[in-house]
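This section describes the prediction task in plain terms. A model, or a person checking by hand, is given the sequence of a single protein chain and must write out its three-dimensional structure as a string of tokens. No templates, partner chains or ligands are provided. The sample shown here is typical of the held-out split.
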Amino acid sequence: MALSEIYNNQTELLKKSIEALKKDFMTLRSGKVSTAVVENVRINYYDTPTPLTQVGSVLATDATTITISPWEKGLLGDIEKAIQEANIGVNPNNDGEVIKLFFPPMTVEQRQESAKGAKAMGEKAKIAIRNIRKDANNKIKTLEKDKEISEDESKKAHDTVQKNTDDTSAQIDALVKDKETELLKV
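The expected answer:
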């Protein structure tokens, strides 16, 4: 394995960590409700746990309402039950045609709780990038031990890996700060 492969692998994994963090952020509730709130809700569709988005259309009709229109009306009860079991903070309203989820405006405490969640997600992402750095550094040490690279090349490689990690860490900090600002804004 060459150093360029190690760098490319690290860069790819660091990008994936950033994408995972952005995806995690979508599950946080902010002032405007997002359909990502129900992204992890699964219903039992022909004995297969199926995402809600694959059995009907899920739309945020306004800042506080999500409307779920199943493609098969017989699924309304199953969807309603799955939402209740998912414990997303609202009770589903079934009118026989669609299910509506009415989210009350967020309180200051709820906003602060969501901001804490964003910070925790940022920490989780930082742990992931530290593990990526550790793997890359271990591969570099192996190359040096196997005499495939010199001590100087090894030192430069460790510095490059550290710089990539620091840059990604700074990106994570910026993303978390932006998300906190968005969540705490009334």
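For orientation: Residues 108-145 form the longest helix (38 residues).
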